[in-house]
Amino acid sequence: MAITTEPQQLLRLLAFMSPAFPVGGFAYSHGLERAIDDGTVRSADAVREWIESLLVHGSGWNDAVLFARAYDADAAARLEIDELALGLAASRERALETSDLGRSFSMAVATMSVTEDMNFQTYPIAVAAACQKACIDKYAGLLAYLQAFSNNLIAVAVRLIPLGQTKGLEVMRDLMPVIFTTSERASAASLDDLGSSTLLLDIASMQHETQYSRVFRS
C-alpha cells in the first residue's frame, strides 16, 4: 500500500507521535505495570506477546478501528465515535488514560494551529481528527499511532523488568509486522468489528488501580 504523505504532513505526523509531544503518555502503563509486578510478564517474549495481544485482540485493535472510522467521519459522527471510544475503556484508569491523553493532545495541537476545533474526550479520536485536518494520510497516521502505542509499552518494560535497551529494540522489531497487519485490517474494518477478548489484560488494568506501590498511573 502506497503512502503519499508529503514532507510537510510527515513532519507534523512525526511531531504528533514524538515522545517529546506533550501528551504525558510516559505516565501510563496500560495495566502492564501490574502484570510485571505480579510476575506475569518477566521477559522480552512475554512483553511481545502482551503487546501483540493488545494489537490483535484488545484495546490496541479497538483504538485502530476507532481511529480509522473517526478519520473518515463527518463532525457529528466523529463525536459519536468519541463517546463510543470512552465507553469501550475497560477500567476506570483506562478511561482516565485515554481522556487525559486526548485532552493533552488536543491542547498541544491547538498550540500548533493545526485546528481550533478539538473538543474530543479520547486519544485515538483526537489524533485521527488532527491527522485528517492536517491532510496526513490515514494509513500513515494509523501506523504511527500503533507504533507509538507499542513503543510506550516497551519503554515501560525496559524500565520496570528491567528489560534492557537491546531486548526492547528486539521487541520493537518483532512487533512491526503485527502493527502493519493490524493497520491494514483496521483501515478496512467497520465499527461492527470492534471487540476485545483480552480479559486477563483488562483485569490487570483494574487491579492496578489498587496496587500498593506503583510508578505509572494506569
CATH superfamily: Urease accessory protein UreF
Low-confidence stretches: none
- Can you tell me the CATH class? Mainly Alpha
What is the fold-level CATH name, i.e. the topology? Urease accessory protein UreF
Structural class comes to: mainly alpha
CATH architecture, by name, is: Orthogonal Bundle
- The proportion of residues in beta strands is under 5%
Q: What characteristic shape results from the CA principal axes?
A: globular
Q: How does the major sheet shape up?
A: none
Strands, total number: 0
Task: Spell the H/E element sequence.
Answer: HHHHHHHHHH
How many helical stretches? Answer: 10
Into which percent range does the helicity of residues fall?
55-70%
Overall number of structural domains: 1
